[in-house]
């Protein structure tokens, strides 16, 4: 049996896979493994009992790789795991730049009275935005993003 310290939040579905490896989540200062997303892994957890640190995400800048290597601890990450989420966020940001829908929705919430349609039409010009049709978009990225 292996004790796994979980730093940050993971879904029950993700954690349920640990049982297949006879590993169980345990809040301990001397784990066999550590699962982390973006938080810093405290150096005090890098002991001779620790076997692996697994980071869900790109990079290992929140893990003391040198100390881990000295202790013989494997440090893993999951490059590309969030590539789709990043791509979707970029597309969402692109749409919000050309069509200020959030600002338009906020403006509509301020309207009141019998002539709401007239008020909205009077302010509509500021929220029209631009169309993407016919535009050329260049996407530059690194790794799995922009490919």
UniProtKB/TrEMBL annotation:
GO molecular function: NAD binding; phosphoglycerate dehydrogenase activity
TM ranges: none
InterPro entries in alphabetical order: D-isomer_2_OHA_DH_cat_dom
Pfam families associated with the record: 2-Hacid_dh (PF00389)
Keywords annotated in UniProt: Oxidoreductase
Keyword Lipid metabolism: no
Span of domain D-isomer specific 2-hydroxyacid dehydrogenase catalytic: 19-90
Enzyme Commission identifier(s): 1.1.1.95
The keyword Oxidoreductase is assigned to this record: yes
Protein name per its UniProtKB record: D-3-phosphoglycerate dehydrogenase
Lineage: Bacteria, Bacillati, Bacillota, Bacilli, Lactobacillales
């Amino acid at each position: 049996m292996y004790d796994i310290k979980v730093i940050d939040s993971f879904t029950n579905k993700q954690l349920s896979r640990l049982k297949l490896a006879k590993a169980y989540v345990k809040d301990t200062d001397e784990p066999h493994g550590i699962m982390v997303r973006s938080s810093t892994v405290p150096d005090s957890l890098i002991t001779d009992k620790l076997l692996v640190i697994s980071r869900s995400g790109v990079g290992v800048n929140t893990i003391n790789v040198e100390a881990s290597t000295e202790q013989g601890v494997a440090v893993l990450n999951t490059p590309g795991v969030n590539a789709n989420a990043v791509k979707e966020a970029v597309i969402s940001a692109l749409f919000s730049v050309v069509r200020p829908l959030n600002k338009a929705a906020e403006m509509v919430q301020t309207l009141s009275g019998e002539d709401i349609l007239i008020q909205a039409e009077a302010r509509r010009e500021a929220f029209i935005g631009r169309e993407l049709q016919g535009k050329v978009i260049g996407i530059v990225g690194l790794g799995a993003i922009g490919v």
